[in-house]
Amino acid sequence: MWIPIQLNEQSAEPMYHQIEVQLRALIVSGQLAEGTLLPSIRELAQTLKCSVITIRRVYQDLENEGLLRTKQGTGTYVAKVGDEMRDIHRRSSVIEALEAAVDAGVRVRCSDEEMMEMLRDILQRRRNANGT
Amino acid sequence: MWIPIQLNEQSAEPMYHQIEVQLRALIVSGQLAEGTLLPSIRELAQTLKCSVITIRRVYQDLENEGLLRTKQGTGTYVAKVGDEMRDIHRRSSVIEALEAAVDAGVRVRCSDEEMMEMLRDILQRRRNANGT
DNA sequence: TATACTGTATATATCTTTATACACAGTATA
DNA sequence: TATACTGTGTATAAAGATATATACAGTATA
């Protein structure tokens, strides 16, 4: 009943958002299986040293996205997400971010080749950093 | 003395930020040459239907980045930016956005190839959309 | 049915972001 | 030097984001 979420206190990114992003990724990438019972809002709040209301917000947001299913008095579970839906969710977060990058590129007159090369470089650099 | 800036009223993105992003791109991509006299803060404020203070903030932010040079009583000019500096500025906005996309990809276990393909698709789709 | 868990709803505190008004100060020039 | 432009500094309004406490309501089960 423990889930791997790490909060970065230094970051300007708000707690609720850090939690949402990480929990969404865990569900959508299949690391948390359908039907898994999540920690109660009080338990997770204690673990992450924040208020119950903050966790509540996260669970509610993800339920509105169809990723969680919640039942008062019982708990909050990972919802059944069709394979198609899961892949859409999974890819859309990445695609949205890439679209933003392309917007930035267009504004400064980056060629398509230049952008592809930039991405290649970034991926390569990370692979090396991890391999060390 | 007119510069092509378009505000999207619908967007949640604040005015000052929309203006900054577009003006920065114009300078850094060389579309506004060094020494160009920009519209006065009052003139641009009137054009964009916002307060003088909002424009002032934009000019000040970009001056702090070294992209503008301003002289009280005279006006605000595009600063001299070394070719290297310009290219760093130009590329960094795109690279930052791409890094964010890669972060998103890593979280949902996207392979490198998958990400490259996503970017290729987006670029292709845009090329077709514009070609029409 | 008592109790010890679940989630829920309302109301509010705090901080940050965004945008503004208005009085002030420098510069050019008729 | 009057005036009509430039940018500047201070102070503040308004809205939104973030996080919270506290009282309430449903569920399981000893």
TrEMBL record, chains A, B:
<feature type="domain" description="HTH gntR-type">
    <location>
        <begin position="13"/>
        <end position="81"/>
    </location>
</feature>
<keyword id="KW-0805">Transcription regulation</keyword>
<protein>
    <submittedName>
        <fullName>GntR family transcriptional regulator</fullName>
    </submittedName>
</protein>
<dbReference type="InterPro" id="IPR036388">
    <property type="entry name" value="WH-like_DNA-bd_sf"/>
</dbReference>
<keyword id="KW-0804">Transcription</keyword>
<dbReference type="Pfam" id="PF00392">
    <property type="entry name" value="GntR"/>
</dbReference>
<keyword id="KW-0238">DNA-binding</keyword>
<dbReference type="InterPro" id="IPR000524">
    <property type="entry name" value="Tscrpt_reg_HTH_GntR"/>
</dbReference>
<dbReference type="InterPro" id="IPR036390">
    <property type="entry name" value="WH_DNA-bd_sf"/>
</dbReference>
